[in-house]
UniProtKB/TrEMBL annotation:
PPR repeats lie at residues 77-111. Keywords: Repeat. This is Pentatricopeptide repeat-containing protein. It comes from Cardamine amara subsp. amara. InterPro entries: PPR_At4g14850-like_plant (IPR046960), PPR_rpt (IPR002885), TPR-like_helical_dom_sf (IPR011990).
Length: 122
């Protein structure tokens, strides 16, 4: 591909998540950040990487992604917030997942089901 854009980066990131090669997704994200032709990850990029973080237990990278989202003023919508909630939950950080859930203005079915499962576990 002669010139990559954010859409081509997002496509490859989501494809590696779909085939469950989370390590490669994280590696490519780092590559995008380091030398992505001056491109900045967008909301879709971060959702893929948060998913990969959750599947691979990399809460450290997930926290870096959240810092990136905050510092770049990316407004977390329902999908991004749900990806963050699931990443925290899969990494065992239930208190942080709860914070995300409580701050969500609109909740997806996944977020509501997560909350119900937590209530049932109590």
């Amino acid at each position: 591909m002669p010139r990559r854009n954010v859409v081509s980066w997002n496509t490859i990131l989501v494809l590696f998540v779909r085939i469950k090669d989370n390590v490669e997704c994280l590696r490519l994200y780092e590559m995008m950040m380091d030398n992505g032709d001056g491109l900045k990850p967008n909301k879709e990029s971060t959702m893929s990487v948060l998913t990969a973080c959750g599947h691979s237990g990399r809460i450290d990278i997930g926290k870096q992604i959240l810092s990136y989202v905050t510092s770049n003023r990316i407004k977390p919508d329902m999908l991004l917030s749900t990806a963050l909630l699931i990443m925290y939950a899969k990494c065992g950080a239930m208190d942080m997942a709860r914070e995300v859930f409580d701050e969500m203005e609109e909740r997806s079915t996944v977020a509501r089901e997560w909350r119900e499962s937590r209530r049932d576990a109590s």
